[in-house]
Amino acid sequence: MAAVSLLMAVIVLVVACDVVGRYGFGRSILFSNELSRLSFIWMTFLVMPLGVSRGMHVAITSLRDGAPTALRPVLVRIAAALVIGLMVVVFAGSWVSIRGRSSEMLNTLPLSAAWFYYPLAIGSAWSIVHLLIQFARGLTVERAFDDETTQAMP
Hints:
Layout: H1 2-25, H2 32-54, H3 62-66, H4 72-101, H5 118-137
């Protein structure tokens, strides 16, 4: 969560400085577009496993909730297995992209274009870990709500 907060701060700071530089001083920051886009992608795919582990993703639970209590763990395991399969495909695709883009450099930052694909590999691998735990338990992580505000609690 600290990394996600730091990346959000980088995005806000870089974009704000670029806007001030562009409209206040007539000059923009050369690397602001690439750095803010790279930070956004990293933030997005680092949040993904946090959402999986805390039950914060959108979930359609009508089938599970309508099933008999004894059948619910089976449905949870089937769903977890399907999502694990999807995450394996995402991980494999990101790995192929990392290998294919490693020699390609970004235009304004001294990084390879593979840095856009590392968060996909990290996020999908970490999501698989959380999904395997859900699969083993046969239980999904339920989102907690504050009774007074009906807002999701972290």
